[in-house]
């Protein structure tokens, strides 16, 4: 049975970095064509001019307008559109994020897309393309991820079934809404498969990483998310102490 993978770019603007993301979409689409995987590409924006730019370049199979504000509202809109088009798997990337096709083991990826896992989590590079490129490995267990700021969400392919069980992204947690969603998935015992290769270059400074708030606010939002998912426990207490210490140390060295 053919699995349908939707590569989605729910963007707040169409730019050169969006085009770069779209090019990597199309490259992966061509590479997966030899496997039993149907790949569709989707662009969603709240700006009509951006839609015209996307249509002019013929990067995407589907182009939609959605009057949403904020990256997670755009993510939710893209998920709803993908599900309405019978997506089996959804891979959400922001403008500037690039799929590193040459680093993917396509046979392993295609095999897992045909299986029944809820979430496929891979490693990724994080940086600003000019000054740094840091490897960020995925730790799908909540025991490892309680004390980190984020999951590897840009390097995660999530099944339609996972969204039907876990729901869409809660907008209450602002820039850490994916952090809350994935911890909620862990608590619900959704299956997470770690594929041990690098899949994405995640560009810092884009819409998914700039919250307009302080680092302290982000730590606070993470703690709220952990408490809501797990309740007050030793793990959450450890995360509280670790986060406060890290926040104070990072603030000191930033001066």
Explain this structure to me?
With 255 residues, the chain is α/β, with parallel strands linked by helices. The chain has a single domain (3-212), classed as Spore Coat Polysaccharide Biosynthesis Protein SpsA, Chain A (Alpha-Beta Complex). The protein is 42% helix and 22% strand. It has helices spanning 16-31, 48-57, 71-84, 106-113, 142-145, 160-166, 177-187, 215-230, 234-254, and strands at 3-10, 37-45, 62-65, 89-92, 98-99, 119-127, 133-136, 156-159, 192-203. Strands 1, 2, 3, 4, 5, 6, 7, 8 and 9 form a 9-stranded mixed sheet that branches. Helix 2 (48-57) links the parallel strand 2 (37-45) and strand 3 (62-65). Helix 7 (177-187) packs parallel to helix 8 (215-230) and helix 8 runs antiparallel to helix 9 (234-254). The radius of gyration is 18 Å and the shape is globular. It starts with a strand and ends with a helix. 38% of the residues are buried.
